[in-house]
Predict the structure.
Amino acid sequence: MAEIICPLCGKPNPPELDECQYCQAPLKSGGFLPSAPEDIEAEGTSPLSEVEDKAGAEPSTPKPAAYPEESIPDWLKATEAGFTQPSEEEPEATPPEDLTEQIDSIINPPDSTPTSQEGAVDDDWLDSLLADAGAGEPEALSNEEEPAEKSEVEPEPSAEEIEQEVSPKEEQTASQELFDKPDWLANLEASSTIKLEGGMFGAEPGQEEIAPKEVPEEESPEPIDQPDWLNKVLPEEQPESAEEPEEGLAAAELPTWLEALRPPEATSPTGPVEDISSAEVVTAGPLSGLRGVISAQPSAIRPQKPPTYSIKLRVTDEQQARMQMMEELLADEGKPKPLPAQHVITSQNILRLIIAIVLLLPMVWMIIGKRQQTSMPQPGNVPGVVDFTQSIQNLPPGAVVLVAFDYEAGFAGEMNLAVTNVISQLMNKNAYLTLVSTISSGPAMAESVIKATYTELGGAQEGYVDYANLGYIPGGTMGLLGLVNSPKSILPYSLDGSNVWAGAPLNSITSIEGFSAVVVMTNDPDTARIWIEQAGPKLLGAGTPLLIVTSAQAEPLIRPYFKSSPAQVQGLIAGLTGGIAYARTFGNTQVNGEWDAFSAGITISVLILLIGSIAGVLVKMLPDNRKKES
Amino acid sequence: MLEQLAQLADPIGAVIGFLLTVMVLSYIIGDNFLFRLAVHIFIGVASGYAAVLILYNVLWYQVLVPVLQILSGDKFTDLTSYVISVVPAVILGFWMFTKASPRTARWGTPVLAFLAGVGAATVVVGAIRGTIFPQVGASVNILNIQSSPPELNKLVGWFINGLIILVGTVTTLIYFNFGIKRQEEGVPVQRSVFMGYLSTVGQGFIVITLGVLFTGVYIATLTSLIDRIRFLWDVILRFI
């Protein structure tokens, strides 16, 4: 039994099926039984297929139409033939036993295009087609009947003949005839033309397979040979018809056995293909005319005249306004602005006055009355004082002592008590004092203290002579290091211009270890630290004591050097407390009210701090302030 | 005449000191002209004195006097030491004058580089030898049993004192340790809880230290105030 060819996928199906087993397309309405060759030959050709054939190679022989349905126009028959022809030819053209012939036909396609043949027309198929295209237009269909019959009777001329023989009048008639068709019919005709040009009909299967791959677009039958009326009818469908059959044929009509025999070279490349259709065509150089290549003459290195730019600064109005604003701001910077008037009587000033009075009045009262009611500090209770005293006591008479006056005049009130006591003890030992200083006011302070102390001791009128004021050590830390290594080269002369290093006792001293003791008097913890760091290691190695008299503010930072083991500082006197304790070691207890004033001041200060803190907490706990904070 | 001036110098100085002290103490009622005048006087006097001292003590006696002595032929043997020590310093000193003009300022950069390099080296070496090594060694040996007092009552105090110093040192160093292990991306960087507690303890030690320093400054200032009050009263008593 003959198989039914699916009109959609073109594959054979058993006759008992109503739908295609491959694509589920209805076979009864669109499927076709393969007809005999004589039947095919008896069928007529459509005008469009004839034109296609003429454009291909040879004109086909015109044959009289033998349709039983006389009412169907020729163009519609041709449309039907376009659908039916390849389906009918396919099983006949490629029988499995004629494999060699088929391969030969693929490799060597026949020179002549086979005659277009029309397949058998199924009424159901036509009905469905008409229903799809627009069944409500029977009148339009009947109007087109007469010209279609004409083309059916008359033999079709070749393409050349059409070009030469068709008169302008006929062309106008034909085109007018086509343009008079309704839209739905024109669309239907156009769709059939697309399929016709795609090679589905009117060509052998083998030729259909190879043609899209081997024949370029330029070599394929072009509509050059087509008549003008056809070009007018199909202006936009030409490019689509060139691409569409390539995809449809490759997927639908290549049998499986032929696919297996296909050489691997013939398969389509799997790698990516670069699309150079939108690439730029090279217009100059040796690669001129090529597309998608890099030009040998890039535009960047082509000699060209440099563009000229205007050197005139373009300033907009907004920029001008900003410049003016900036100039005004800069001009205002130099102008003095009057300070806002401050009220003399403010709550802050009143509070400040109250605190000053509360603090000053008791201290003034203590000093005026020279009261001495609080117990004075004992030397044993102040760390460093006893060690300091022992170091002084251990000095031999006439020892050469280096004394550094490195405290500011503002701290004289705090330090002078300890300083004068130390200097007086050294004078009592007939020590030779070598005075130096790393601050500019130090030499003057040293002279003042020496004179005052010697006067208090009741010395001779000419003053103390066993000292040398070497003055100021320039260079800060580096100068101090130079003094440690070579004091003579750093300070060769004393302030009075005498060369003290030439005579006794300084002529035997070449470095800082030559001194019997080094006493540093400073209010600055950094200065004390520099002395400890630069001179301490050498003095420690030589066994020379390093003694420090300092302010209370520097004591916490210097005490670790005294408390370390081994001690880097052998004696420490700090502040008024240390000075009084040191003075008591010699029985020098001045009753001038300072210690009572100091004790009262400390006590009042602590009370002020406590009261202020409690008041601050209470004020913060007030409901109004809580609301403000929240 | 000079003796009379010398006898008057002391009372004149006392009066000037009295007036300047009162002018400075007038800051109690707020910033005023007298306080600013006294401050300006102190700054001017200190600057002038420093300039004179440097010219006299450094340039004259350390640079020019040796040259005069050499020229007089007294001490030709010191020429070598003078050339080695003083001449380079003089050359570098004059070289520094190039910094006076913006055009030639860059020529003085080598001198500044020399000063900065030598100064930094001096400070660093002194800090290492004089502070870091000795203080680290003292902290390590602070609980050394060999240095402990033999008496039992002092031993307890020694141990507690050493323990406080040890804990304070360690926790303060932990407070300044800001290194944290790298976390995953998106995870907030956070200290470990244990280190956070130790850091808080170290922060407490730092607060106590700053409080002690402030107390020392306040005590020094209060002592100076007492000294000034006593000075004023002495001057008043002297002229009364």
Observations:
- The mean pLDDT of chain B is 85.
- Residues 144-178+191-240 of chain B form one domain.
